[in-house]
Amino acid sequence: MVAAAVIIGLICALVVALAVIATVKAVRTVKRGVDQAVTQARRTVEDTRLKARQFTQAGPAGEVAELRLSLRTSMRATQEVLRETQKDDASLTESLALFDRLSAHGRELDEDLRKLETEPDRERVAACLPDLRERTKQITHSADSLRFAAQDRARQFAGDELSLLSEQIRMETGALRHWEADDADDAGAGAKDAEKTGAETKAERPAISGRDASRQWGYTWEKVKRPESPA
User: Fold this and answer.
1) Whole-prediction pTM value?
2) Sign of the Cα pseudo-torsion (100, 156, 71, 42, in order)
3) Which of 59, 110, 127, 231 is the most exposed place for a label (fewest CB within 10 A)?
4) What Cα–Cα distance (Å) separates residue 158 from each residue in 80, 89, 92?
């Protein structure tokens, strides 16, 4: 009885532990999904705000919003492409490492641009813009280069794989239709036999060289000589 009680207690403890683990994992999954949704919502709101400032505010303030929007769009697009492509191409690990280093500069630049949005001194904003514009150009150009290279690499691999697959399918369809090749060989052999038989028959048949004695009236285009009447 004691052993049975111990076993039952262990089973109950194991079930409770598994239930707790499953609950914790479910909570973490839900929390991760909520965090991602909140982050995406914040990005959308921020991008919408920057687009509005870009078109509604003229001068340095509008350009600052344009630079931030251009930076964020390029970095986000490159990040998505590299992460998705790296799942199928492990050689992009180094590219992701380089992008992480570039992202540090991108975050620093975005923070500098964000601070200028609330700067009341327009002259200071205008004085800082040339440097910020150049930094934005360098970072977005580097991010775009990584993204374009990853996309071109993925397209090249897809093209090579498709060509190889097409060749394999062509060979497989030929193997499945093996009887066509057999029929073609049989037809060729039959044609050669018929040609050979015809040549032999032609050689045995005598050539027509004049009137056929077995026909009384001769050929239709020859005039028949009438017998002479008795005197």
Assistant:
1) 0.58
2) negative
3) 231
4) 19, 12, 16
